[in-house]
Design a protein that fits this description.
The complex is a heterodimer of chains A (126) and B (175). With 126 residues, chain A is mainly alpha-helical. Helix content of chain A is 48%, strand content 6%. In chain A, the strands form 2 sheets. A two-stranded antiparallel sheet of chain A has the order 1-2. Chain A has a two-stranded antiparallel sheet with strand order 3-4. The N and C termini of chain A lie far apart (36 Å). Chain B has 8 helices and no strands. The N and C termini of chain B lie far apart (65 Å). The chains are: A mainly alpha (126), B mainly alpha (175). The A-B interface holds A 49, 70-74, 96, 99-101, 103-104 and B 51, 53-55, 75, 79-85, 148-150, 152-153, 156.
């Protein structure tokens, strides 16, 4: 029972609470996050290994409501909360994947501003 | 008091039944596989973290030295960033070492060890001689089918790989 309580306590975040957090970190108002910039971040291609361009869409597909595939073929559940309400409800998980995936695709970590822009976009994908 | 005693009686009966269930001969035979069913292992972090990108490869497929090398370089995990927080990373490594090919806990592990040099620390399971020999009838064209992708995708053909079942009878190669 205790385990249950603490397990749910860890997942008390939401897209809105995450945006508030990233706004504080970036020193801007959450209302200034831009869904347009967030979508651009998702779709922009960067030089990858073997000269092939990579973007977030390489694994997540161009439609964030669709399931994607990892490089070894394992299913990735949809990224958009509209299709997968579990997304963006666990700050530690969100941070882990921004850290990994930004480093892979952009060759650097994403800024708090970029993370906020991204959530502003993905959370309103219908 | 009476209820308490009766309750305890029920509990211990359940205990006996479950001990019996786990010591049936058929279960023993599959505990460590007539070779190809791996011991049932549970480690929450191993399952959650490793299996978010690929199946949680069994620790007995590689020796301890391999796992140490791999877990020490998660920032560049076969070209991808798979970094973890230090606590989770250490927990998974302890688990991998305790059940590694050279830990003496599985038959597959012993076979893997026989197929590599004593000081080898391969990072790819698919490069051990054991793996190559086991798959020598699979052509390059088959590996690269879209439905399979690569030899790293065990579950494409070993449909119950996630459950540790690598029995040849359970293999279905997709078209």
């Amino acid at each position: 029972m205790l385990g249950l309580v603490s397990a749910t306590a860890g997942a008390a975040d939401s897209p809105a609470s995450l945006m508030t957090r990233y706004a504080q970190e970036a020193g801007v108002a959450a209302s200034t996050f831009s869904a347009t910039r967030g979508e651009t971040l998702f779709r922009t291609e960067h030089p990858g290994r073997n000269g092939e361009p990579v973007s977030c869409t390489s694994c997540h597909t161009a439609n964030p409501k669709n399931a994607g595939r990892t490089r070894v073929g394992k299913r990735i559940e949809p990224l958009a909360p509209a299709a997968n309400p579990e997304r963006f409800t666990d700050a530690a998980k969100v941070e882990k994947w921004f850290r990994r995936n930004c480093t892979d695709v952009l060759k650097r970590e994403c800024s708090a501003q970029e993370k906020g822009d991204f959530i502003a976009w993905i959370s309103q994908v219908k | 008091m009476n209820y308490l005693l009766r309750g305890m009686g029920v509990l211990s009966a359940v205990g006996v039944v479950s001990v019996l269930a786990f010591s049936l001969p058929s279960n023993e035979a599959h505990g460590d596989g007539g070779g190809y069913t791996l011991p049932r292992l549970t480690n929450k972090n191993w399952q959650q973290e490793c299996a978010s990108c690929h199946i949680a490869y069994a620790p007995s497929f590689l020796p301890k030295a391999s796992w140490r090398k791999m877990m020490g370089d998660l920032d560049n995990h076969f070209g991808e960033n798979a970094s973890l927080d230090p606590v989770t990373q250490a927990d998974i490594l302890r688990f991998l070492e305790a059940n590694a090919a050279d830990s003496g806990t599985s038959r597959i592990g012993r076979r893997v060890m026989q197929s590599i040099g004593a000081n080898d620390a391969p990072l790819r399971i698919t490069e051990t001689r054991w793996f190559v020999r086991k798959h020598d009838e699979v052509s390059r064209a088959t590996w690269s089918r879209k439905s399979i992708g690569s030899a790293a995708n065990c579950a494409a053909c070993h449909r119950q790989a996630e459950q540790g079942n690598f029995d040849e009878d359970a293999v279905r190669i997709p078209k």
